[in-house]
Amino acid sequence: MKRTVLAGSLSLAVSGLLIAAGVGTPASAADTGRPHTPKASKTQAVKDARESIAAHPQAVRASSHDTFTSAAVQVDKDGTRHVHMRREYRGLPVLGGDVIVHSAPSGAFRESTLGLKKSLSLAVTPKVSAERAEALAQRMFQGKRSKTSSKLVVDALSGTPRLAWQVTVDGIAPDQSPSHYNVLVDALTGKAGQTWNAFHTADGTGHGYQVGDVPLSTTAVSGGYQLKDATRGNGETRDAQNLTATNDSPPAGWGKAFTDTDNVWGNGSLSDRATVAADAHFGIQATWDYYKNVHGRSGIKNDGVGARSFVHYGNNYANAGWDDTSFSMIYGDGAPGDKPFTEIDVAGHEMSHGVTSATANLNYYGESGGLNESTSDIFGTLVEFNANSAADTPDYLIGEKISTTPLRFMDDPKKDGVSQSCWNTNTKNLDPHYSSGVGNHFFYLLAVGSGSSKWGNSPTCDGGTVTGIGNDAAGKIWYRALTTYMTSTTTYAQARTASVKAAIDLYGASSTQCAAVEKAWNGVSVAATSTTCGGGGTTPPPSGSNLLANPGFESGAVNWSSSSGVITNDTSGQPHSGSYYAWLDGYGSSHTDTLSQSVTIPSTAAAPKLSFYLLIDTKESGTTAYDTLKAQVVSGTTTTTLATYSNATPGGYALKTLDLSAFKGKTVTIKFTGTEDSSAATSFLIDDTAVTTG
């Protein structure tokens, strides 16, 4: 019998142009008390993160067969570290197994952010051959194939982790786009699962434009100049010569370099092939400068390396896109009679997919896919504002100069007829370009505010009012949330948690900026989680030392005795803090659950107390106590009931405190007993327990 999903008391959680490309769940652990160091190097941050994983394996759901490789590393000004780690299980990559280890300036472990629900335990011997999996993926691919490859992985993206073949079919899609078509094939059953394209493109027909007269940074070569920017990581713009590329699309050295004798590029019209090259090259500069000047990021991967752009890609190709495999942009010339896809916000959008790939690595499907797209829309817009070009007045419209109608409206995304302005349970099922509307709307509310302005007219989904905090603060909050707290499987609910944490980090828990983040999420129907501005989602410790071990259940069932399934991180329920909690009953049938732990109460305790947070959700009605939860103390053969709670008084998490003075000097068992009758489910959720001495 499945439990009834709580109603009314839970956070909402499920999670190119256009343009294409956990937060995971936080788990806390105690500080290890290492000596303070002023500011750690990235190498030291990684070393400390590895030590934290070894010391707190449950906090990252690590098994004895897991290994971790560092990806992005961030060290804050105060020395706090955030290390993104990729997970392997028995040598196989774990999709959805990435984790962020957050450490104090001393190197002491603070918490982790991850999407994995529990430690992995599965066999890694396939029953389905790679050849069979590849054949299936090839049949599913629409287009011209060039190469097929496969590798064994653990698919932990959703549901029960499974062994799978990740098959990649490279080629050219029917619309001339390069394609890296991925299919997950169950390695035991041969059934096809999740699919995605690792090349990300724009949606729609191009009506591109030019950026006008702009300065360009070039490189002197023999006989003249080349469109290569030595001041921005040697970012280069090349001519694709109306060809398409496969495999590493486009591969290094592909296309033709743009050279010129007088360092004047283009003539303002499409009669000169260098005109759109000037547009694209300016897009590289504008994107680099935004990330460098606003966020201190040196290039897309933060490694000082510039990106490449290829203009005149394909034959009348009406699209633009970012290819992370080859670390490059492509721009088509558009349909006959139209202009190319070389708009500033398009360039910023596409290259921001590379930033996402290098940091949170958000999946490109489900709610994380929508967040991936909205992140590119957000930063593409901010690149446009930062460039402040007279030829392209900054706004909150996406691709407005490519098409007669903007491709997306950030003030009210549903204006385009397909995008969502408000989150709902179907959001995860939409194309990422349409589910991105929730994130776009959130950002507009956060930056500009609700109601009418010179930028548009933005309604809220909850009828509330939001006062904007401006692009600078809103952009910095989103960037920190992306790079510090989001993982590949982050959903919109988890993005709310990530952005609240980011706002607390940057501006403080009581700041106007943090309050605006919460209101903006409310305004797009993404409900509150346990992380709030008021306290960052943490529970103030009770007075006196806590005698209970694993009091918040963050180490799973360790130190507790309980009925099967009681200690859980099931996202159908809701923790008071962290990710784990105890869920008693909720089956809607005759059932009894127990939860207990033994503890010794000192005879010297001044005023010993049992405290815990309790949430009661019920399908019962009226004031009759059909379903009950008893808080009890077992001493020897005697069981004393301290308090009884029932379906008659439902409500969200509330602190309960009970007197234990009668048990001084005794070793007793703290016990919770939940009893449910034969109909109408009642759930009792317990979290953040404590036995204190006073």
Cα Rg: 27 Å
Number of helical runs?
9
CATH superfamily of the largest domain: Neutral Protease Domain 2
What separation lies between the terminal Cα atoms?
42 Å
Topology, number of strands? 34
Average pLDDT figure: 86
Number of domains: 5
Structural class: alpha+beta
Unreliable spans are 1-38, 202-209, 535-544
The biggest beta sheet reads:
10 strands, mixed
CATH topology-level fold name of the largest domain: Neutral Protease, domain 2
Region (Disordered): 26-45, 227-254
Subcellular location: Secreted
Keywords: Hydrolase, Metal-binding, Metalloprotease, Protease, Secreted, Signal, Zinc
Main location: secreted
What would you say about this model in short?
By secondary structure, this protein is an alpha+beta fold. The chain contains nine helices and 34 strands. It folds into five domains: 42-114, Nuclear Transport Factor 2, Chain: A (Roll); 130-197, Nuclear Transport Factor 2, Chain: A; 204-358, Elastase, domain 1, CATH 3.10.170; 359-540, Neutral Protease Domain 2 (Neutral Protease, domain 2), CATH 1.10.390.10; 561-692, Jelly Rolls.
Please name the defining characteristics of this protein.
Elastase, domain 1; alpha+beta; Nuclear Transport Factor 2, Chain: A; 7-stranded mixed β-sheet; elongated; 694 residues; 20% helix
Molecular structure report:
It is found in: Secreted. Residues 240-249 have a biased composition (Polar residues). With 694 residues, the protein is α+β, with helices and mostly antiparallel strands. The protein folds into five domains: 42-114, Nuclear Transport Factor 2, Chain: A (Roll), CATH 3.10.450.490; 130-197, Nuclear Transport Factor 2, Chain: A (Roll), CATH 3.10.450; 204-358, Elastase, domain 1; 359-540, Neutral Protease Domain 2 (Neutral Protease, domain 2); 561-692, Sandwich (Jelly Rolls), CATH 2.60.120.260. It is built from nine helices and 34 strands. The strands form seven sheets. Strands 1, 2, 3, 4, 5, 6, 7, 8, 9 and 10 form a ten-stranded mixed sheet that branches. Strands 11, 14, 15, 16, 18, 19 and 20 form a seven-stranded mixed sheet that branches. It is elongated. The chain starts with 24 loop residues before the first strand and ends with a strand. The model is unreliable at 1-38, 202-209 and 535-544 (pLDDT under 50).
